[in-house]
């Protein structure tokens, strides 16, 4: 079957239009806050692979929406900072009503402070972090 140039151009235009529409939809989804985000993780000693109890977890939760309901999808307007501690199994968890981007920093005496690379939020975020002992605490 032979198509005319007009039909080929028309179908190419329609294809490009739908690709652009899909791109815009994906962009919109990537710049909205995710609701009901659960963050959990485990912290272990890098050398022994044993859980670390009472490690301090600092979580910075960035949101596109501020506390008054204003939104700007070019920058983060809202910021929540919380601190939790690991239990005897090295486990921690928390929840946020809304989140766009999360940064996690982990502190424990005798260990190097460790940061998890920031991640765009999803409904369930799981982390496993291995802490390395400070150089001055290894041989003591």
Could you outline the blueprint of secondary structure elements for this entry?
Blueprint: H1 5-30, E1 34-45, E2 56-63, E3 78-85, E4 91-99, E5 101-107, E6 114-120, E7 124-131, H2 135-138
Parallel strand pairs: 1-7
Antiparallel strand pairs: 1-4, 2-3, 2-5, 5-6
Note down, in words, how this protein is organized:
This protein is of the alpha+beta class. The protein has helices at residues 5-30, 135-138, and strands spanning 34-45, 56-63, 78-85, 91-99, 101-107, 114-120, 124-131. The strands form two sheets. Strands 3-2-5-6 form a four-stranded antiparallel beta sheet, with no helix packed on it. A three-stranded mixed beta sheet has the order 4-1-7, with no helix packed on it. Strand 5 (101-107) and strand 6 form a beta hairpin.
Low-confidence stretches: none
Oligomer: single chain
Strand order in the sheet with the most strands: 3-2-5-6
Strand content: 35-45%
Percent helix:
10-25%
Average pLDDT figure: 88
Largest sheet: 4 strands, antiparallel
Shape: elongated
Give the class from helix and strand content and strand pairing.
alpha+beta
N-to-C SSE string, H for helix and E for strand: HEEEEEEEH
Extended strand count: 7
What's this model, at a glance?
The protein has 140 residues and is of the alpha+beta class.
Describe the structure using short key phrases.
140 residues, alpha+beta, 4-stranded antiparallel sheet, 3-stranded mixed sheet, elongated
